């Protein structure tokens, strides 16, 4: 893996993004922001699954007003998502949000951005310049491809903020097309010192969207690019957070709860590995500690992988060997597989 | 993206792997191979979702014998998965399989591999040298890390086959650990001209396994490495194939059926985008043609992304605009969203 790109650290409330800070997992509420109770409940659900930053759409004044009550009830830093109307950014700041996202494609005149940046500077609140391929400003240089256009739009906004001596900047350049997104981030990563928020926009429902998001985000992380990630799914936001941590765990960039190794099963397996693995995965969702658990179906890789795990089970016909840190600790009967394995996991 | 690594093309029955051939999607049956009917049925299911190569475990002589009847009933090339006993490889060849997979970690003495390679050469049948971190041969150089050990084990087997003037070789080096897997493939990609089968081993059930597999496979593909892919999931094999194509589509490496762009929804949306997107995804599973469909929740990126799609819908309060190739073609009521969108998709 490429070493992580060095970026300037910024603070969004209590959460550091960039520098040597862990790569931050974030999501966004999907409730009507004006519905204070349902929005608070969704933010609490996100906190429960360790979502570290929560973005909230602010489409109108009533939503900006609702932020005051929401802020009082939650502990995750809140980022107000602003489009079109810069005055909503000012109202969100007054409500106490810890971060802003502005879309240069629709925020309008530089004077408006200047007004917002000054208010942010007074409060020490960072701004994400959130460029999106689906909402670029109209007049683009037709000689540039979409990736280059996104970079140009971001750079124009960055230069404006820098001219105001404001540098609490985070940048994103999202497209649905993965190669376009990667090209844009690779380019801007070399041009600016600011932390990067990475993701694939409008990636779709979980079945296809998790894969598209993972392809884009993991490739960028492998290249050393990305300080905070958001998996965009047409699904409850909790799913975005779970997927985000799985990406980071797969690249050994963060620990977060258990890791499950399980074989795909094949004509060699003599027990129902697919159902056993799914049952173990369900049980592991309740466990917070980082522990590596292996569920293996046969003698080929079974003992090898099970040994490498903290707790592992290598199944044969009707019975299995239970391993702990490479040591066989018991032989168990098929009816006890799940219970015996989970008992060891709890005990570990 | 890096240009694809140049590799020697080999033919597994009617399917070319390597060279300029499209990256091949493969899977493996999970039925008891000796149960001929259930194995044939699963292979037909795999053929139905465009699985291009099917691997079948051959744990004993009865399974090898079953291959004869299986071969007669299916059209996808069959690869026999052999561990421990080289005689099963010879029997599988007699049953007519188009490919073999040998695990150097357990196949035993060079003389045995030599016997198998000679039989393969007579028939023009390729061998995959399938190294797995969980089943390396016992005596490994302790100064080498796991990635280096996997490469060394593969290279020893490759040199043996080359010394027999046999070059219908494909290689895989799979670990559960993604960085280890990537390191191993990057190394061997520079050492040999043969096509590479890529994947992450024992990646787990779908929730975590799809992400882990996608992280490993997509990063390698981005680096230009990989001629055939297998997504390993503790799940029905059909899920592996669907995931495999989604990875290839996300990197624009292959077309395969529809692509769905859909927004994650947020506090700005005035319709239930999550349910609409999932319903559209369900409907699109029935459609084979490559078509890009967008389901967007609001005016921010909605019209931009919907315009870029073949057929798109950009929703507002209670109604939406239907787009076709960038042109507005209708305004539709909320109750008609799904039906009107799918009617246009069918017509396209």
Walk me through this protein's architecture:
2 copies of one chain form a homodimer. With 348 residues, chain A is of the alpha/beta class. Chain A has 2 domains: 10-250, TIM Barrel, CATH 3.20.20.20; 259-347, 2-Layer Sandwich (Sulfite Reductase Hemoprotein, domain 1), CATH 3.30.413.10. Chain A is 41% helix and 20% strand. The first copy, chain A, contains 11 helices and 15 strands. Chain A has helices at residues 36-48, 61-73, 86-95, 110-123, 146-163, 178-191, 206-222, 237-250, 273-284, 302-308, 337-347, and strands at 10-12, 15-17, 24-28, 53-57, 78-82, 99-102, 127-132, 169-174, 197-198, 228-229, 259-262, 292-296, 311-315, 319-324, 327-333. In chain A, strands 8-7-6-5-4-3-10-9 form an 8-stranded parallel sheet. A 5-stranded mixed sheet of chain A has the order 11-12-13-14-15, with helices on both faces. A two-stranded antiparallel ribbon of chain A has the order 1-2. In chain A, strand 4, helix 2 and strand 5 form a beta-alpha-beta unit. In chain A, helix 3 (86-95) packs parallel to helix 4 (110-123). Chain A starts with 9 loop residues before the first strand and ends with a helix.
């Amino acid at each position: 893996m490429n070493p992580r790109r060095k970026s300037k650290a910024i603070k969004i409330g209590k959460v550091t993004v960039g520098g040597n800070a862990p790569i931050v997992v974030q999501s966004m509420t999907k409730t009507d922001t004006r519905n204070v109770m349902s929005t608070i409940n969704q933010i609490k659900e996100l906190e429960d699954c360790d979502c570290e930053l929560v973005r909230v759409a602010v489409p109108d004044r009533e939503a900006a007003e609702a932020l005051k009550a929401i802020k009082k009830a939650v502990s995750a830093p809140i980022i107000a998502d602003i489009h079109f109307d810069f005055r909503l950014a000012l109202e969100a700041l007054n409500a106490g949000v810890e971060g802003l996202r502005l879309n240069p494609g629709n925020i309008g005149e530089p004077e408006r951005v200047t007004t917002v940046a000054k208010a942010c500077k007074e409060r020490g609140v960072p701004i994400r310049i959130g460029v999106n391929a689906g909402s670029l400003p109209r007049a683009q240089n037709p000689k540039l491809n979409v990736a280059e256009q996104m970079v140009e739009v971001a750079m124009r906004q960055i230069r404006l903020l820098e001219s105001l001596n404001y540098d609490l900047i985070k940048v994103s350049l999202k497209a649905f097309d993965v190669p376009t997104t990667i090209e844009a981030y690779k380019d801007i990563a070399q041009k600016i010192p600011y932390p990067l928020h990475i993701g694939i926009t409008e990636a779709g429902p979980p079945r296809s969207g998790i894969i598209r998001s993972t392809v884009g985000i993991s490739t960028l992380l492998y290249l050393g690019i990305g300080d905070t990630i958001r998996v965009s799914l047409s699904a409850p936001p909790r799913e975005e957070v779970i997927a985000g941590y799985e990406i980071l765990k797969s690249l050994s960039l963060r620990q977060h709860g258990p890791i499950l190794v399980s074989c795909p099963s094949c004509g060699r397996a003599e027990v129902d590995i697919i159902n056993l693995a799914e049952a173990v995965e369900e049980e592991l969702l309740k466990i917070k500690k980082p522990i590596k658990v292996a569920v293996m179906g046969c003698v080929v890789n079974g003992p090898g992988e099970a040994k490498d795990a903290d707790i592992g089970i290598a199944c044969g016909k009707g019975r299995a060997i239970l391993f702990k840190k490479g040591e066989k600790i018991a032989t168990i009967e098929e009816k006890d597989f799940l219970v015996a394995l989970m008992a060891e996991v709890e005990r570990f």
